[in-house]
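=== RUN LOG ===
request id: a7f3
mode: sequence -> structure
chains: 1
length: 289
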Amino acid sequence: MLPRLLPLLPPQLAPQALLCPAASTSPVCSTFLCHRTSPTSGLPMANEANPCPCDIGHRLEYGGMGQEVQVEHIRAYVTRSPVDAGKAVIVVQDIFGWQMPNTRYMADMIAGNGYTAIVPDFFVGQEPWDPANDWSTFPEWVKKRNARKIDREVDAVLRYLKQQCHAQKIGIVGFCWGGIAVHHVMMTYPEVKAGVSVYGIIRESEDVYNLRNPTLFIFAENDAVIPLEQVSVLTQKLKEHCKVNHQVKTFTGQTHGFVHRKREDCSPADKPYIEEARRNLIEWLHKYV
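=== RESULT ===
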């Protein structure tokens, strides 16, 4: 059974197998510790050009309900909805790649709520980031994986969804690196009806406000990568310049990665925020896709 959000479930389905991704598989979760600190101050760095992708995150032991397919020049993970409504959602990976179980769980959750969900390999065969890697190499690594240079892959995925999945309406959701990709797509592809950018790095340039379709931005209050000052600037600029529906939502007390890389059973205090953010994500898709 595909995972769904609790408020959207039929009453006969058991709630305990839902928002905790590993509840029906394995109770084991491994923790990635990726603190990057300034060599001078010893404080966490929040450098937009050299982002630390997470402070604490869990790699879920989750096998997935979908299948891997070839989409032109890239591989992808696809999960079909039990009810085909002609709607699809592109789910964009974080730096840990398209095979990360957490991202596949989110795709399955989206599929369980009425969409064909696809997680393409936007790194096009290049290795994802390994938390054991030397962080001094990260700037060079991410430079070769530009989240704003993915048009060829987006074009291929859109063709696949329309031709093979008969999708008539398409949305997009992305996390961290994928949040940047969502921001780019929502400025570039008017055929993508809605986007949800989840803690995507905010870039200081005018074009980030020219959204083509409704976009939800989810941020964390205690995100060392994305300072609240940047979120405030984005909010104000969208208010001044953006002509389509949008929302910027910041979650109290949360850190980078909380929506898809925190296990609410490992940190019970975070559970309401994880649930609310996931619910907001689904509601945004329901409203605009």
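=== NOTES ===
Confidence is low (pLDDT under 50) at residues 6-56.
The chain is about 25% helix and 20% strand.
=== END ===
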